[in-house]
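Dear Dr. H.,

I hope your travels went smoothly. While you were away I took the liberty of generating a structure for the chain from your last submission, since the lab meeting agenda had it listed for discussion. I wanted you to have the full record in hand beforehand rather than looking at slides cold. The sequence, exactly as received, is reproduced here:
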Amino acid sequence: MEAGNQILIVDDIEIVSSAMQMILTHEGFEVECVPDGHAAIERAREKAYRIIFIDLIMPGLSGIETCRALHTIAPQTTCIMMTGQVEQDPTALQEQFVEAGGFAEALQKPFGKQDILDIVGRVMTTPMASGT
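The corresponding predicted structure, in token form, is as follows:
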């Protein structure tokens, strides 16, 4: 499967995923949205993605659990954490996400269009993992 410009957004807040989808689609990416980790895992088994944005706090599987499962299924895919979490240390959360196979950067909510495009640009200029 070729990931190319495929992006998956995993967030239980529809307004967030819809806004991201509109921004990224306008930039030429093929974007799909799912509301939770279980749906993301199902989609990743069916289709290759270049980037998967994952909300940290969702019903069911957490973003970290989702990232860990997705890294097993599609290690070549770049998973990016999104969070509005302020109660916990964001650095510690990011470290847990990276240990689960995620990207070393995160989107801190609220974020804007340029924040999304900047992180996508950095990922797209990084060679994909071989998926060993």
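Two observations you may find useful: The chain has a mean pLDDT of 91. Helices lie at 14-26, 37-46, 63-73, 90-99, 113-124.

With kind regards,
E. W.
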